[in-house]
Backbone:
């Protein structure tokens, strides 16, 4: 545990001494702010329209569904592109610079290296997502959205980003080239993001499988305020698979 | 008053050098070690030993398999055949035990550019399991020993080659290891730095076993007790320095042994 923490601390230092973390967090917040503004003005327009022509039986625009759910969904798309930038260096860089040789020949296990690094990314991502809680907070201050969907949605986003990060780290473990790691993780995450697309036309069991694998489908309930065991299990499995692959890749690296 | 060394409790590492022991304890034992990458045989059937408190010069021309052998001893690469023990533990089956007992400086010092020297060495102390309350004191001690205290607050990226090498060495001796493995520790240094590093290695050899890879012959003549010369993946000469260079200069021995594929000379 002490070793894991030592590795995690070192990684955090690398994130915050170099400009990477600041740029990624600022960029993310900027994008989310832009989309928040868009969703909010769209919501305002809808409210205005529904007050002018009040049609019976028409649903009134809902702050949670229109703004918060919309922004959270957009955040997932941004994460697909930003997380590879955070994870691509994690292990590829160590291999390139020869510090991996130092870690391996020290009394440190591969699992400790993987967990320490993952923990550091998890901390950076949680900071990044927490900064963006300012947007729902604004709504709570000036409107009256339901709190539960915000909380469960945030939990979903954290889990989802950890799953993405774990996959990005696994990809980084297979190569010593950071750019390759970045591109491959981005492609993998993008594929995962759209994996439910063929479900419509396929139908049957295949459709079920594709839907189950989709992080967007799995987030749906959490964003609506329903915490299900199924979606939690899905994201935790995603994290575990990524960590397992990283661990295997690093063990195998020495046996080339 | 407590001795400065007392917090490294292993009795093996303190004092009892080969000189006092009479019967030297074997700290590195290599038996028929081989490593191949596909068809390419980098190291073939290498055998040699190093006793406690010995500084062993590991010599050979470029591409002779020095680095590969050293990486196998440091548990970084698994051998394809043969076996090796370091400090009495097998480098494959007991790699964890070996890792606790070695200090290893690869050819390129494995520094984290974005860390300050003192931060880097503190990190090393943490992952090498130095007792928490002793970390700060130990880092100071090692910095003094390797003459890097004056750059403690510099980023590793901004260090000159000589300082990088010395920080690398500081890293290797952090946990007061029984066996120190150094891969060309003086390459790229200026003459003054070379002299300092050699002095340091010599002083380390009093209490530790040092395996020193190099292709600079005078260096071996100056600091080593024993030489092992490898060529094309084979050991061609092994023996105490005094015996190997008794009739001819070390340079002659080296040139003869690496230029021909003659019989293997063992002066032991």
Residues:
């Amino acid at each position: 545990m002490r070793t894991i923490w030592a590795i995690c601390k070192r990684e955090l230092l690398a994130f915050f001494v170099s400009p990477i973390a600041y740029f990624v967090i600022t960029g993310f917040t900027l994008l989310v702010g832009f989309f928040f503004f868009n969703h909010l003005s769209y919501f305002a327009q809808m409210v205005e329209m529904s007050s002018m022509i009040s049609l019976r039986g028409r649903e009134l625009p809902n702050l949670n569904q229109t703004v918060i759910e919309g922004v959270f969904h957009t955040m997932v798309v941004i994460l697909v592109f930003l997380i590879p930038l955070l994870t691509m260096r994690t292990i590829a860089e160590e291999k390139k610079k020869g510090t991996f040789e130092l870690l391996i020949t020290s009394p440190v296990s591969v699992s400790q290296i993987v967990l320490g690094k993952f923990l550091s990314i998890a901390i950076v991502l949680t900071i990044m997502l927490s900064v963006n809680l300012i947007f729902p907070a604004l709504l709570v201050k000036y409107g009256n959205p339901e709190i539960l969907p915000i909380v469960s949605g945030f939990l979903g986003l954290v889990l989802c980003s950890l799953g993405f990060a774990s996959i990005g780290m696994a990809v980084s473990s297979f190569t010593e080239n950071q750019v390759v790691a970045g591109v491959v993780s981005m492609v993998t995450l993008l594929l995962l993001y759209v994996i439910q697309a063929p479900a419509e036309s396929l139908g049957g069991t295949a459709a079920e499988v594709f839907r189950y694998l989709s992080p967007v489908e799995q987030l749906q309930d959490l964003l609506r305020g329903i915490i299900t065991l199924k979606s939690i299990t899905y994201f935790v499995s995603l994290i575990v698979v990524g960590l397992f692959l990283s661990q295997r890749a690093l063990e195998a690296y020495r046996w080339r | 008053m407590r001795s400065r060394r007392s917090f490294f409790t292993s009795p093996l590492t303190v004092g009892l050098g080969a000189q006092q022991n009479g019967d030297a304890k074997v700290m590195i034992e290599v038996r028929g070690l081989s490593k191949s990458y596909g068809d390419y045989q980098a190291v073939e059937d290498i055998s040699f030993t190093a006793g406690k408190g010995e500084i062993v010069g590991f010599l050979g021309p470029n591409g002779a398999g020095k680095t590969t052998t050293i990486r196998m001893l440091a548990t970084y690469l698994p051998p394809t055949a043969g076996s090796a023990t370091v400090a009495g533990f097998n480098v494959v089956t007991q790699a964890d035990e070996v890792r606790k007992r070695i200090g290893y400086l690869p050819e390129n010092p494995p520094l984290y550019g974005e860390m300050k020297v003192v931060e880097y060495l503190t990190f090393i102390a943490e992952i090498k399991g130095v007792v928490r309350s002793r970390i700060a004191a130990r880092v100071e001690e090692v910095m003094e020993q390797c003459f890097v205290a004056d750059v403690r607050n510099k980023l590793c990226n901004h260090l000159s080659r000589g300082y990088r090498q010395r920080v690398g060495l500081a890293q290797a001796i952090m946990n007061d290891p029984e066996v120190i493995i150094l891969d060309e520790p003086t390459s790229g240094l200026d003459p003054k730095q070379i002299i300092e590093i050699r002095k340091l290695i010599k002083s380390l050899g009093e209490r530790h076993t040092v395996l020193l890879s190099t292709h600079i012959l005078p260096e071996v003549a100056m600091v080593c007790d024993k030489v092992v010369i490898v060529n094309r993946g084979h050991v061609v000469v092994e023996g105490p320095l005094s015996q190997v260079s008794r009739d001819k200069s070390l340079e002659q021995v080296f040139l003869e042994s690496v230029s021909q594929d003659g019989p293997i000379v063992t002066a032991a």
Notes: Residues 9 and 120 of chain A are 7 Å apart (CA to CA). The mean pLDDT of chain A is 91. The radius of gyration of chain A is 20 Å. Chain A touches chain B at residues 2-3, 6-7, 9-10, 13-14, 17-18, 97-99, 101-109, 254-256 (CB under 8 Å).
